[in-house]
UniProtKB/TrEMBL annotation:
SUPFAM superfamilies tied to this protein: NTF2-like
Key words, A-Z: Signal
Keyword Signal: yes
Gene3D superfamilies named among the record's database cross-references: 3.10.450.50
Segments forming domain DUF4440: 37-146
Signal sequence, renumbered to the chain: 1-24
Protein name listed in UniProt: DUF4440 domain-containing protein
Domain of life, per lineage: Bacteria
A Pfam family hit: DUF4440
Amino acid sequence: MRTKLMLAGVALAILSGCQNQAPADDRASIEHALKLQEDQWQRDYASKDAAALGSHYAPDAALASPGAPIATTEADRAGALEGMAKDPNLKMEFASDRVDVASSGDLAYTRGHFTMTSTDSASNQPRVDKGSYLTVWKKQSDGLWKAVEDFVTPGPAVVPVAP
């Protein structure tokens, strides 16, 4: 009897753990949705719409860019994004090399590479930066996916753009 109860307890624990996992097809659809969201994010960079750029972040998200303080408040993120959006030379291209969704289906990350053209503050000339990014996404209570951690790391040395 004791063995049967123990086996029943183990089976119940396994089954309850399985219920917390998103099915593989749901995880694939989440991966696809995040790639589509990154495509929209890239279009928002192209339109230089700071409000649209900010809409990809959760209220408590962190944005970390090289050479800038980490932006952990909505006001700090808005200021950083507005500054970028005002740059006449801004051009952002990025693509995820990896998308992974937690088995729970409520957390995911995208990792990839970027190329950004911006204005060099020292020379006032265009410059090109390349590097990698890691964005952690969390499903919000309204069902939308928002970035909760967005970290950018520089790649090779800055390449000046010829006038």
